[in-house]
Amino acid sequence: MVDAAASFDGNRVAANEISARPIGAHPNHWAATTSDGIGIADYVQFCASALFAPAQSGSWVSNWATATGADMVVATLACDARPALSLALEVVRRGPFKVARFAGGRHANGNFAAVDPRLLPAVDGPAIRSMFKAIARMRPDIDLISLERLLPDLDGVANPLAALPGFPSPNLALAVDLDGGFDALLSRASGKRKRKKHRSQTRKFEAVGTFRRIEARTREEVDRLLDAFLEMKEARFAKMGIANVFGDRQVRDFFRALFTDALAKEKPPFLLHGLDVAGKLRAVTGSSRSGKRLICEFGAIAEDDLAFTSPGDFLFFDNIQEACELGFDVYDFSVGDEPYKRLWCDIEVQHFEVLAPLTLKGRALATGLRQGARAKSFIKNNPTVWKLTKMLRRRAAGQAAPAAAEDDS
């Protein structure tokens, strides 16, 4: 049983573990520290040598905090004074509850908290819970810590949060194994049909005018591609009867800063690609790099006179081909099970979720969220029910016709 003593220092609270747990022949002393937004600078510094998923990067966290003015909490678990695990969370209101979650909310997918791989084997459930206790002491107003869409592992390293009680996320994530290169991939994934379709699309684009695939390499190109994406997404969500998760100005400012800042890196961790046909962007994707994994974070197509040519499929073909050429092992379509992804994917990733109540109110909320996740899983894993749900959403939005292929999870 862990015995923790709390000490306070300005905006920081430390829970010092009095009892030591032997790891091998050497005792290790854990300390959990928690701070508000001033701890982001320390978090960014830790990320310089840590392992983390894109949405837990220092760039993502700092830009989200700056663009949105989020109420941030940074909790760090240290082993013999060396940081081992750090959580950068935003505190949001959910009805009468306050919830601490990964920065970015629904935009943060495939999550893996920043860790020092050398110290990770020593991190266990009691140590992580000491972090949560430190958060509760500093922020008694927080009812629940909600850690969603967690990767089971990253680059072969098991997620330390799996040491806590959790449950499967309602949405699968899909990915493509790039082993052997692009030709080998096509030999496994109806390559003859894909190449034929790609050639047909090329002829249709050439009939309209010149076409090219663009990677945003300047601030102006970031603005152009992102503006086009946001316009496409707004029209798409309106057609489907879904709230536009990119609609808030602060969210848009965040993505603009994120992709612009990435340009300063030798290997930009966040990338924008677009398909320009006859001077107009017809498809846009936003991606992130994570080790040997290239992740499609989002995508959209223009609902115009060329939508029938499936410009999104064309751009994915080129994106995946380039990922193979650059030596990536996996092309990750991220969260959402959609037919256009299934055309490529041969890997299913089951994310998991961890809910840690800090108050009695938080326990009630956690129970409701678990029940909600089970209901979503039932709906989305039942093709008939899921098809009916999407049809009803479109009818509610005044659009009974099927929408173009795009992730609507």
How far the N terminus sits from the C terminus, by CA atoms, comes to 42 Å
What is the chains' assembly state?
single chain
Structural class comes to alpha+beta
- Number of strand segments: 19
Please state roughly what percent of the residues sit in beta strands, choosing from under 5%, 5-15%, 15-25%, 25-35%, 35-45% or over 45%.
25-35%
Cα shape: globular
- What's the story with the biggest beta sheet? 15 strands, mixed
Taking pLDDT < 50 over at least 5 consecutive residues as the criterion, the unreliable ranges are 1-27, 399-409
Helix content: 25-40%
Rounded radius of gyration (Å): 22 Å
The helix/strand order is EEEEEHHEEEEHEEEEHHEHHEEEHEHEHH
| Arithmetic mean pLDDT | 87
Q: Treating each run of at least 4 consecutive H or I residues as one helix, how many helices?
A: 11
InterPro entries: Acyl_CoA_acyltransferase, BioF2-like_GNAT_dom
Protein name: GNAT family N-acetyltransferase
Organism: Mesorhizobium vachelliae
Detailed description of the structure:
Pfam families: Acetyltransf_6. InterPro entries: Acyl_CoA_acyltransferase (IPR016181), BioF2-like_GNAT_dom (IPR038740). This is GNAT family N-acetyltransferase. Residues 193-342 form the BioF2-like acetyltransferase domain. This protein has 409 residues and is an alpha+beta fold. 36% of the residues lie in helices and 31% in strands. It contains 11 helices and 19 strands. It has helices spanning 40-47, 58-68, 125-138, 182-188, 191-208, 219-240, 249-262, 311-325, 339-342, 360-380, 383-396; strands at 4-9, 12-17, 21-23, 26-28, 30-35, 71-79, 82-94, 97-102, 114-115, 144-150, 153-154, 157-158, 167-177, 211-215, 270-277, 280-290, 293-301, 330-335, 347-357. The strands form 3 sheets. It has a 15-stranded mixed β-sheet that branches. A hairpin with a 2-residue loop joins strand 3 and strand 4. It starts with a strand and ends in a 13-residue tail after the last helix.
